Amino acid sequence: MEAFSIRHTIEFPPPIVAAAIFGLPTIIGIMLKSGADIEATCSKGFTPLLMAAEMGHSSVVLVLVASKANLFAKDFRGENSLHKASLGGYTEIVKQLVSAEPSLIEIPLEENFHKTALHLAIGSRHEGVIRALIDAGADLNAPDGLKLPPLMKSIVVNLPEIIDLLIEKEVDVDANGFGDNAALSMAATSGNTDDVKKSLAAEAKVDASTNAYSGMALIRVTSSVHRIMPSLPSNLLVIVRMLIVLMYSTLHPSGMKVVIKAGANIQAKDKNGETALHCIKP
């Protein structure tokens, strides 16, 4: 019988990766001078740089970048060092990485709907990282794999200061994204009156597309009832739909008033030829 060994139950990463885990830049420097492999990996594909970015050790990242670590290396999830720093909210590391290699900014994380570092930072609500990436020249109109450009994503996760910044940077407020919606349509659907006002102030088109008009929120909410409860009797379905409409107008009356006041076409139709009024008729 083979003797028990703790090495059979616990994986030990290469020493230089372990040093990165614990944030030991001096030790890593000594190891590198002694010939340690700067691209050594653990079983999950973490190089010392990837591990340092994952853990938020900016001093280690600084040493590794200066020692010419591979900034494009990926782990088992397909994440590179900038993806990790953006997800973790490590602004200083983000600045170090994009300063060393600006092209990292637009490399998508293919395994996560082709999101760039900016998309990841917005989704994680790390405003410091978002600002750093914007200052570094990130594409402010590029959509991710879900067709969500940065402005629309910021509306979805409710980042008012970032929305202001993106509008100030003159992003395309009328660009169609997820579900063929524009930013104004998305804001109206969520009932976020402030975001609706910001979009209109940026001269967003109230009738930018078949989905971007005052009744859009109403139509999407009422139409969804058909998909959620297709087995309801027609008369009960009408009542439920009317209740949803009343609920939306009660909770978000100001948002509806804002877009109507802005000159929205209340007779506009969706792709099925229905207006908001059609959606609550039998």
From TrEMBL:
Keywords: ANK repeat, Membrane, Repeat, Transmembrane, Transmembrane helix. It comes from the Eukaryota. The keyword Transmembrane applies. The chain crosses the membrane at residues 12-32. The keyword ATP-binding does not apply. PROSITE patterns: ANK_REP_REGION, ANK_REPEAT. PANTHER family: ANK_REP_REGION DOMAIN-CONTAINING PROTEIN, ANKYRIN REPEAT, PH AND SEC7 DOMAIN CONTAINING PROTEIN SECG-RELATED. This is Ankyrin repeat protein. It comes from Sclerotinia nivalis. The lineage of its organism: Eukaryota, Fungi, Dikarya, Ascomycota, Pezizomycotina.
